[in-house]
Fold:
Amino acid sequence: MSPHHAHPNQRARLTRALPLARYWPWTVNVLLALFSGIWLLHLALTLPQFPVSSTQCLLLISAGLLCALSVLPLAGGRAHRKFLMVTAGVALALLVIAASFTTPSETSAMGDYLWAQLFFLSRPLTLGCVIASAVGYWLLQSHPDSELSFNCHLLALLSGTLFLAGEIAGSYWAMQGWGHSWSWSSHFFFSALFYLLLILVFHFPTRWMRTQQQQNRAKAMLLSFIALLQLGYRLL
Structure:
């Protein structure tokens, strides 16, 4: 007997017996997170001093974190299911881009320096949180959900906190390596611009955007721009 012609109680038992068929978006995100982790572990074992500053590492960590965040109960009902589907698609795209990069064969002396590692690690962690928050704010346009709205706010706040922590670690690293903690180079200018944009997420004037939906749309657009800016800076 097929599930379509089964008794309602039998269909319920079949659904419980096949959780992968019911929760496939959740399962896909878990598998993608595991795949990202295994890929990173393989790189760490084959290249003990694999440069964490590489674009490939940025993409792998961001994809893994995005999938890991999506499986958390950030929203309820259909909003969470949509969130899982979108994040799975974005993470898969990041992994495909990562596969197009050749794994560097050289080693990096920075692999033994804690402050450099913390600085470079803050970038993919920030990117993963930014993408997750942007996806959530976009979904709030069609799926209003107070829990999702609250968690998107926390993810955006976490993005700025992680980036600032990376800047502090990078300043200490620069002081130890070059004798100064700040200089107006292109990299420092981009970091300052990036952080100001992360702060702007929380300061949209209500006189221009009076409704919560307008605020959410503006936040979604800005966070998407931040994610594209960071990816474009590394890929182009």
Residues 14-18 have pLDDT under 50 and may be disordered. The CA atoms of residues 41 and 221 lie 34 Å apart. The chain has one domain: 18-235. The first helix runs from residue 8 to 17.
